[in-house]
Structure formats: structure tokens, C-alpha cells
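Structure first, sequence second, as always.
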């Protein structure tokens, strides 16, 4: 079955001169045989070994460089006090139980009521590493949103996605710190409450699930790159415990059991829950792909969606072997054949899911 997207993709190609990839279309990557030149106004940018994409020429990397060490200070209530186009550390934004490092990236030009994206790094990562290794900041210069890059305070530089506190609304630990910086941004910086989003890779993907489950009142959408179901890492060990049983795909539950973990995280919450898009590789031997299917059980039950996708298609703008399973407007699950830990970032697609691009 053709998706509307796929048809639109084909139509978009027809009027163009032969062999030009459309804006946001694929223009290179291992095994890619299509056009490698881009439609006018866009340039082919290597995203990873598998995927190059035609990006609007305006989204060139910001010319400013990161100050090292970054300037730091108490979070100003006036956004204009934050220097533009640099990674800027803030403190005193609210309760911060474990002293999570908090960095904000403000582009030169912000939307009037800017969206906010919280981007959480993987284990052994830092705010700076995720900032430099992703295009979230660069694309903020094009689309005018704010980015918060939290930085783990724990020995392995993983996130606490296991403690009872972090898994509970206002329960404490790392998730509360991230919720509090979002609350600060909402209260002081004019951030659009309908456009607060979370994204993360690996441990940061697990944090994204935690934020979606425990703070559905703050976050409106989440992108989970190579993570696990909410609550799967639960453990009474040290705060950044790596839960091997979950990671190896051996925590198997029914959709109802998984959903109950989400409901228990914020009893009495009756609002709209954040929509979720999860990405996983079939060759992931760090966070085994069973976790992809456990997430599907969890979120389809939470949202009351069918347990089988309404469509499952390859997309013209994703590498071959990627399937996009849609269960409803609130939940999509992208499985990447032969891809290990982690699935490379597809920032442009995430921004579309968030309704920013
Ligand atoms: C979508 O289709 C692919 C390829 O047939 C399959 O491997 C994958 O499991 C499907 N996704 C879901 C969520 O059923
Ligand atoms: C998956 O399909 C849905 C429904 O067509 C679409 O809205 C979404 O953009 C697609 N996601 C990706 C990552 O291709």
C-alpha cells in the first residue's frame, strides 16, 4: 500500500528536471542509487553513512563557535540575557536534586512564541557532545526554536531512568530537573506551552520515555531513538544503573501492564498525552529490538490504538530498509533493518513530527 507521503514524494519529483532530489529528499548514502543533486535552493548534506539529505541552503551550520568552557550563570528571567548561538549553561532554574548540568541554545532569530526541544544525550555523552554531534542547534537557527541540552551528573554519564523517584511525576531525581527547566522556560521565556518536546538517544531515549510518561502535562511529543518502554529500566540500584535484563529484551509484559506503569507515574492525569515516535535498529545488541515491540504494546495501549499498524511503509526520505509503522496520529514506530545501536539521528524528520519544520 502506498502512503500519501510516498505518493506526494513521487509527485514532487515529476515536475523537476530529471535526476534532482527534492528538498528534504535523499541525495546519497550507502546503497542509494537515486539522484545526488538537489533541487535549487537546497544542498546535499551528509547526515550519516546511510543518508544524505537535501537541506534548504539557509540551514548551513551556525558560524559561531562554542565558548569553552561555556559561560554559565543563574537562569535569567529575561531571555535576552542569554547569549545567542552558543551553548550557555544555566543554574538556579528550580529544584535540581542531583545537580544535572543544564545548557540552553538560543538561535539568533527566535520565533515570537518559541517551541522548546529538550535533547538528552546517550551514556558517556554530555550536553556538549550531543550539541556538537546533532543538528538540533543548527536547525534552530533556521526554525527559531530553543534547545535545552541537559548533561548527566552520574559516573557513567547515563540518565537516571530507573529510580522510583525519576519514574514518578514530581518524584525527584533527573526527570524532575528537566521538567523544572522546561517549567522555568515556560514561566519566563515565553515558550509556547503547546510546543514543548523531548528527544534523546539511547539513555537519552529512555529519559524521553520517562518525561513522556511522568510529565505528560509539560511535554507534547517525544522522539525515542533506540530506547525502551517507560519503566522497563526500573531498578533499586544506583541512579544510573544499566538494567541488563531490560536492555537484553527480557522484560516482557502485556500492553495493559506496560500502560499501567505510565498511568501510575501521574495518577489522576486526564489531559492529552504526548505523542510518541520511536526508532530502533534490528541489529541493536545493546538495547535489543524486543524493546521496540514492548514500546509498541505500551503506547498503543496508553493511547487506545490498535496493536497492529494501520500502515507500515518505506519512506522516500529514509534509507532503504527503514519501515514506518503508524498506529495512529499519536504513535509511530520506525524499524531500521540491519542498523545497530543507535539509529542515526534524523533531525529534520523529528522537526516535522513536532510540527516545527
Ligand atoms: C513493518 O514492516 C517491516 C518490514 O516488513 C517489519 O520488519 C516490521 O516489523 C513492521 N513493523 C511493525 C511495527 O509491525
Ligand atoms: C510515518 O508515517 C506517518 C503517516 O503517513 C507520517 O505522518 C510520518 O511523517 C512518517 N514518519 C516518518 C519518520 O517517516
Amino acid at each position: 500500500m502506498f502512503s500519501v507521503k510516498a505518493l506526494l514524494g513521487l509527485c514532487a519529483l515529476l515536475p523537476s528536471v530529471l535526476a534532482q532530489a527534492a528538498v528534504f529528499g535523499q541525495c546519497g548514502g550507502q546503497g542509494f542509487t537515486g539522484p545526488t543533486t538537489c533541487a535549487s535552493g537546497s544542498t546535499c548534506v551528509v547526515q550519516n553513512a546511510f543518508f544524505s539529505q537535501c537541506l534548504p541552503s539557509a540551514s548551513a551550520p551556525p558560524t559561531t563557535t562554542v565558548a569553552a568552557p561555556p559561560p554559565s550563570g543563574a537562569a535569567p528571567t529575561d531571555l535576552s540575557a542569554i547569549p545567542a548561538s552558543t551553548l550557555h549553561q544555566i543554574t538556579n532554574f528550580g529544584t535540581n536534586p542531583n545537580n544535572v548540568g543544564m545548557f540552553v541554545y538560543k538561535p539568533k532569530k527566535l520565533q515570537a512564541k518559541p517551541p522548546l526541544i529538550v535533547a538528552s544525550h546517550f551514556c558517556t555523552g554530555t550536553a556538549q557532545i550531543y550539541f556538537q554531534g546533532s543538528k538540533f542547534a543548527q536547525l534552530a537557527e533556521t526554525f527559531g526554536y530553543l534547545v535545552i541540552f541537559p548533561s548527566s551528573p552520574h559516573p557513567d554519564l547515563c540518565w537516571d531512568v530507573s529510580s522510583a523517584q525519576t519514574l514518578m511525576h514530581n518524584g525527584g531525581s533527573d526527570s524532575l530537573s528537566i521538567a523544572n527547566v522546561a517549567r522555568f522556560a515556560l514561566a519566563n521565556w515565553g515558550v509556547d506551552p503547546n510546543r514543548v518536546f523531548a528527544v534523546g538517544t539511547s539513555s537519552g531515549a529512555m529519559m524521553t520515555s520517562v518525561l513522556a510518561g511522568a510529565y505528560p502535562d509539560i511535554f507534547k511529543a517525544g522522539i525515542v531513538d533506540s530506547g525502551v518502554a517507560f519503566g522497563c529500566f526500573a531498578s533499586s540500584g544506583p541512579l544510573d544503573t544499566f538494567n541488563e535484563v531490560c536492555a537484553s529484551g527480557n522484560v516482557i509484559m502485556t500492553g495493559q501492564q506496560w500502560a499501567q506503569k505510565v498511568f501510575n507515574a501521574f495518577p489522576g492525569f486526564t489531559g492529552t498525552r504526548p505523542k510518541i515516535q520511536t526508532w530502533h535498529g534490528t541489529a541493536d545488541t545493546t538495547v535489543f529490538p524486543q524493546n521496540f515491540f514492548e514500546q509498541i504494546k505500551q503506547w498503543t495501549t496508553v493511547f487506545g490504538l490498535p496493536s497492529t499498524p494501520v500502515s507500515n511503509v518505506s519512506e522516500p526520505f529514509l534509507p532503504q530498509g527503514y519501515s514506518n509503522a503508524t498506529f495512529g496520529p499519536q504513535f509511530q514506530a520506525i524499524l531500521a533493518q540491519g542498523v545497530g545501536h543507535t539509529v542515526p539521528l534524523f533531525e529534520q524528520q523529528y522537526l516535522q513530527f513536532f510540527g516545527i519544520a
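Margin note: Residues 64 and 148 are 18 Å apart (CA to CA).
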